[in-house]
Amino acid sequence: MNQNIENLQVITHSDGYIYVGGNNFTDGNPTVFISKYDEEGNILWTQQYTNYPQMAGSFKQMIIENNYIYILASLKDTSTSKRDILTLKYTTNGILLLDLVYNAPDNLDDAPKAILV
What we know:
The protein is mostly beta strands. Helix content is 0%, strand content 62%. A hairpin with a 5-residue loop joins strand 3 and strand 4 (43-49).
């Protein structure tokens, strides 16, 4: 398996754990991922968002608020190159609670800017 990691963001949370989000390009197909590490750097879990296999995921931002992890990303349709905005919500145990995709009514290219909770 050929793998590249890009667009990393690292957060050391008040719970003592380290959270890393970014893009994982496995075999040329970009996906959004999040990983949790303990204080010694041991990986506890990793989640890759692959609910839309026909679309390429691009990580933008991650925040932790009220012990939930929020990720902002875009999904790019590989056939039209148009993007939609993706918002993910995880527990600090790596359970996906919410995935919202926004496509504006004009169906043009939608680019995420920032997330605020």
